[in-house]
Amino acid sequence: MAISSTDISNRIVEAVLAQKLAPGSRLGEQELALLFDCSRTIVREALTRLAARGIVTVSARRGWYLIEPSQDEAREAFEARRVIETGLIRQSASGVRKEALKRLKLHLQQEKAALRQDDIGKRSYLLGDFHVCLADCLGNSLLADTLRDYTARTTLIAMRYQSTHDAEQSCEDHVRIVEALERGAIAEAEALMAEHIGTVQAALSVSTAPDPLARLREALAPVRAANANPDAAAPSAQLLRTTPSKAAARKRGAAGGPDSSDDSSTYLGKLL
User: Fold this and answer.
1) Is 38 inside any structural domain?
2) From CA 213, how far away is CA 219, in angstroms rounded?
């Protein structure tokens, strides 16, 4: 069976939720076409849909990339999730169907199993997908699709800003929300959801934007010898002290000694 553009976009979103694709990851049309054994036209259609959903971005020169959310976008995404999810719970005042509760409990069992197995990818996917599952169980498939996109975006945000939120605590929050829904305590479930989303957001380190040149900066930092003297931090000053003057070089040459002006290795070693 031939793969569709919807299948490809769903696979990309699933990979994001599982934290297998990092913010800013390049999504090459040719590579994806080879991977999924389809035409670039189908891949382009999938990426165009994801761009419309705010998950990928495109540059005429650079191609397709997963978004790298800014701090303002992070705040707005979490605010949108808070409004949608608490509103959905509030609208379920008449109660949650037994079939829906059974499905939610099954999802929680899968979360706990992934935590025990220390399967980071599956754990991340299930913790994010809980919110999509909850919206679907509360009877709004349209908002479930919307939440899937917002959850993917907030997952990218968490990866970009290095969330320290504990996965086990997140699962426990989910358990408490479902227990409140089962008891018919809708107001409590709504408050727990708002608190849960706020806790995840608060765990993000968005006070300062990450340095995009951090790895390159570290790799290209000057290499210092382990036994370097304190003056090694000032290569230009060291160079002035260790490079002989022309007059001194001529003097040593006249005395039959080696002319260090012809030895560039010492000069470059001190400079680098």
Assistant:
1) yes
2) 10
